[in-house]
Amino acid sequence: MGARPVTVRLARWSAEHPWRAIALWVVFVAVCFVGGSAAGLKEASHADQAVGESGRAGLIVDAGNFDDPAVENVLITSRGGALDPAAARTAADDAAVLLRSVTGVASVGEPVTARDGSALLLPITMSGDAETASDRVQPLRDATARVQDGHPQLRVEQVGGPSINQALDDTLGDDFKRAELLSLPVTLAILIIAFGALIAAGVPVLLALSSVAAAMGLSTLASHLVPATDTTASVILLIGMAVGVDYSLFYVRREREERAKGRSGLDAVEIAAETSGHAVVVSGFAVMISMGGLLLADDAVFSSLAVGSILVVAVAVIGSLTVLPALLAKLGRWVDRPRVPLLWRLTSPQAGRRPRFWPAVLKPALRAPVATLVISVGLLLALAAPALGMKMKFPGMEDLPRGTPAMQAYDRLTVAFPSNGTSHTVAVRAPAAEADRVGAALTALADRASADPLFAPTEATGPKIEVSADRRVSVLEVATPHTSRTAESVRSLERLRDDLVPAALGGVAGVEYAVGGDIADSEDYSRHLRDKLPIVVGFVLVLTFLVMVLTFRSVVIALSSIVLNLLSAGAAYGLLVLVFQGTWAEGLLGFTSMGAIVTWLPLFLFVVLFGLSMDYHVFVVSRIREGVQAGMSNRDAVAYGITSSAGVVTSAAVVMVGVFSIFATLSMIDMKQLGVGLAAAILLDATIIRAVVLPALMTMLGDANWWAPRFLRARPALAATEPPAPTPELVGSR
Length: 734
Known about the structure:
- With 734 residues, the chain is α+β, with helices and mostly antiparallel strands.
- Helix content is 63%, strand content 8%.
- The chain has helices spanning 6-16, 18-39, 46-49, 52-63, 85-100, 138-150, 161-195, 198-222, 232-260, 265-292, 300-321, 323-331, 341-347, 357-367, 369-384, 405-416, 435-450, 487-505, 518-552, 555-580, 586-589, 601-629, 634-663, 669-701, and strands at 71-78, 105-108, 112-113, 119-126, 154-160, 392-393, 423-429, 464-467, 473-479, 512-517, 597-598.
- The longest helix is centred in the N-terminal third of the chain and has 35 residues, at 161-195.
- It is elongated and about 90 Å long.
- The two termini are 38 Å apart.
């Protein structure tokens, strides 16, 4: 007999030396976490995240080394009717006197009256680091509130970047706290239902949490090679909990199943390692390959997410092959304690009842595979069709939650003072000797733009032009009255880039210029991702195909897995477009449609779904192959593989759907889209794809499923278990 696979040898050693394996795992997690904390996190800089012309504009602005302090405003408006100028001026004077005495205020400017007289604006410059201004803005807001108390007939409110950021941090902080508080009990509750025993339900959560902790530390170390972004930790938690629970679930269910057949604890662990453990390794590689495709996007955010995801998946795989067998061996039959009486009877592998639900679901696929395949694929393609009309945009200020006073004040500010709303940044770098010519050109550009309805009128104080201390960098803000996701805002960007800016600056010697801003960021990033998407998709498809070919020794199985995962991703895209590009679901999910999908979501969703879907595919097809290798006919093997894996796949999918659905309740539109997209795709994949399309396709193909060129036909050793006889309801309909 040949050497046992590495997965089996690792599991065997861990099961025979459980305390050593557990101790080594604890030390590994602690060293990773402590080492990462000691090394500190290196965050991606503006230069790391620069994309397209908007990225060049940002780098030019950074080169100017501007003293760019945080700015707040006190906005004074009427509560009804026309604004009383004298009363507004008195309130502004009171606010100026009070705010000058507040710690953190560097200066208070002169009040500015709106063109239509509907508002008065008092600018406030804060001292200290602008990056931390939102942490220090509360005393200013308290002072403004006291002014409001003294002038109840007016609306006196504070608005600006720091106060908006503080309000959003509070809102999003509450959102994520709620999500974190809900996700763990939801996961535990689903696992208790799946296992019917508390310890068995706790083991997957324990492995997932420890894997996340280790990966957090490793990703902090890795950030010194690939700088991290502020979303990396959230994605590590999301992916780590998903795969950590999945891998443990596959392993624990198989170990319990083998013990129920009368095998010893050690033998049950070994068989679980040879079957489910092997599937975990393959699916782990598939997930890592998918996430590795993000590195080809040439984007700092995606590179950081890729590294974090790869690390947490690798750690989860290692944990499922080492500490998990040790825990199962040490717990023995205690893993099924304490039992939940009713749930235990329903879920126990000793229940002795044949499943009824899944055989009923499988009947159409086994009896009429061609018709079932055509109908189910047709429905999924119909669901995917709306994806052809997908539009991509960055969320703008108008897409932020409107429930906070700061955002409501911002809306009133942009109505009264349009130049304080959405704007383009014209960044210019030229020799210092040309500074006066650059300034004159930018002033002329601002005047010309002001006469165009695509742009907001210039304020009475003149255009906003900043010049660096060395006179080499000049920056002009050109405002537009149109919100960032409208066609008019995009046309205003194109007008600047194609006409106004080249015409104004083309004659300046040695000049370098670029147009940036929120609108430019969105357009340039969308174009960048559209260019990179084919490269990333091609990489993921080719490498996943090779992994599947080498795993199952079948070209057909590899091709079908690719096609089914593409079908699943396409259906998820179509559903996202149906829900979020229209308005019918706004009341149901609590959002305002931006008429588009968030720019980064399609690419990220593709790699995550492709990787996670492969978990189920590898596990299900592995069980089908076990049946084939044990001598079953193809049809009986399909029936055995689907029914024997349906419980664990369904449980794993329900856990993921439950956790991802929590994200759909968050306030931010990008988190809602991510939650709905992931939850819907996993649900479709674990039900229609794995329980209808896959069995219909494999039944239709018959023995052709396992075709491969001669050099690939070497078959791995048979699993050390014998599949039970197929369910009678699924046999005889030949």
